[in-house]
Design goal:
Layout lengths: L9 E4 L16 E4 L27 E4 L8 E4 L9 H14 L16 H8 L5 H12 L14 H24 L9 H10 L3 E5 L4 H11 L2 H5 L3 E3 L12 H10 L6 E5 L2 H9 L4 E4 L14 E3 L5 E3 L13 E4 L1
Parallel strand pairs: 4-5, 4-7, 5-6, 7-8, 8-9
Antiparallel strand pairs: 1-2, 3-11, 10-11
Helix pairs in contact: 1-4, 3-4, 4-6
Length: about 325
Amino acid sequence: MASSSSSFTMLLSAPNPSLSPSSSRTTLSTLRTTFLPTLSSSPSPSPFSPTAITRRRGKSLLVSAAAAGALQALIFDCDGVILESEHLHRQAYNDAFSHFNVRCSSSATEPLNWGLEFYDELQNRIGGGKPKMRWYFGEYGWPTSRIFETPPDNKEDREKLVDIIQDWKTERYKEIIKSGTVKPRPGVLRLMDETKASGKKLAICSAATKSSVVLCLENLIGIERFQGLDCFLAGDDVKEKKPNPSIYLTAAKKLGVSGGDCLVVEDSVIGLQAATGAGMPCIITYTCSTANQDFKEAIAKFPDLSDVRMCTGCTADSQIHKFALCVI
């Protein structure tokens, strides 16, 4: 969980060294900036530390939170949890940069292109597309483009640039999703159905643009499941992006439950911080780009939800009165 310090040092490799304001060399440069709260190397113990978390093949195992009440709501993130989408978002951003001929340096020979390793680090540090671009342009210089022939030098024009690029990127992302090549991650649909069947509330909270999330969910989980959600929130619905906990605090209010009676499914440290910041325990289903992050504040982590079941009457642990999942 984030400490109370107001900044942290973030290390990122420049995706295109020629765009770095401090170097024109072709080697990757190291970027340091302050943006998010400090990630403490020795965080204070979470009230949601696991009592016992082990994954054993072929054996039912209870995963329970020590300080939680009876589970009333299960809340899913979307990108990285319901689908592996990082590479799709990166493709859409790079297509947008190419479409608008976005160049952050007069010496750049081609449009901006966010590389794989750079984007993995960026999307795991900064939530939301617009904040990503604001941060990047603030570091590497506001670009020339087909939108503005000269770099915008005032807040209004800079916001217009970011808005136009983000809108185009969102439409491009929708086209990719509608292609039919994207599938939900293993176990997601089953766990959603089990949650509803058990009488518990089901919600989805995503930091992404609402229109793209709606399209994504309608295509991946189906219209019936989507319309059956007890709460759905996207980045447009809150002022602050993850790791700020506002989206989960808002969800708890809409669901009419306390944070401690919810369980969140996330895939990254940013999402984990948002959940625990809202007083909600969290499990992680990591992706290839988040697998090595520090998830010690999560109550459990898994490569996917294939073996995770909604526990309805399991007697494997004396803490069954608290919310629980069974891992088969």
